[in-house]
Amino acid sequence: MLTHLLQAKLHRVRVTGADLHYEGSCGIDEILLEESGIREFQHLEIYNVENGERLTTYAIKAPRGSGTICLNGAAARKAAPGDHLIICTYSYYSEDELARHQPVIILVDDKNQPRHRKPPKTNE
After folding, report:
1. Which of 6, 29, 52, 53 would disulfide-bridge 78, Cβ 3.0–4.6 Å?
2. Could you give the residue numbers annotated as active site?
């Protein structure tokens, strides 16, 4: 049996842009993608802290170090620049994987730069 659990979370990132006429997706600073383990084109669940909106889209890379969090296409109607979002990915885990699974949680500063990672990266 597989269990669906949180894989990664970008906690309280701030929307920097919204482009209604882009083809779709959510642009995320490449550093945040790397730190969280979220892959480009991976399914995202996004929760807007300010207005309660929830949406589904996929990740695309935004320029490294830019702090960009940009909702594109129809998703642009769900948030405004300055809104705080929680961006989550979920994955399926086997019974063997459940015992050691820990989701990655990235906390950011007010410019969307990573300030804390749970659990910390190891040098494996």
Report:
1. 53
2. 25, 58
